[in-house]
Task: structure prediction
Amino acid sequence: QVRLVESGGGLVQAGGSLRLSCAASGNIGSSADMSWYRQVPGKQRELVAVSLSRGSTHYADSVKGRFTISRDNTKNGVYLQMNNLKAEDTGVYYCNVAVYFAGRTDYWGQGTQVTVSS
Result:
C-alpha cells in the first residue's frame, strides 16, 4: 500500500514563496508519475503541475513561470516550489502519485492548505 504525506503549506503574503513536499512510502515502481493538484471550495480539483516518469514536466497556464515541480526518485519525493504567490493560488494542495502496476492506480495525500493574503 502506498501512503503519501505532505508538508509545507501555510499562510504567506502575496509575492511570497512556499515549498510543498510530498513523500511516498511503499512501492511506487520506476514509472510513477507525480503531480500536484489544488482545490478551492465549490470548484473541482485542478492539476497544477505534473512530473512524468520519463522526465518531462507540465504546468497549468496560471502557474507557469512561478511554480516549479521537482522530484527525488531516491526518496520517492515530489516537491512544488511556489514563487510570486497570488491570492488566487489559495487552496488545498494535494499530492498525487500514479502507479503503473497492471494498470494505473492513483494515490492521494491528505492535502495541505495554502493561503495567500493580498
In short: Residues 25 and 78 are 12 Å apart (CA to CA). The first strand starts at residue 3 and ends at 7.
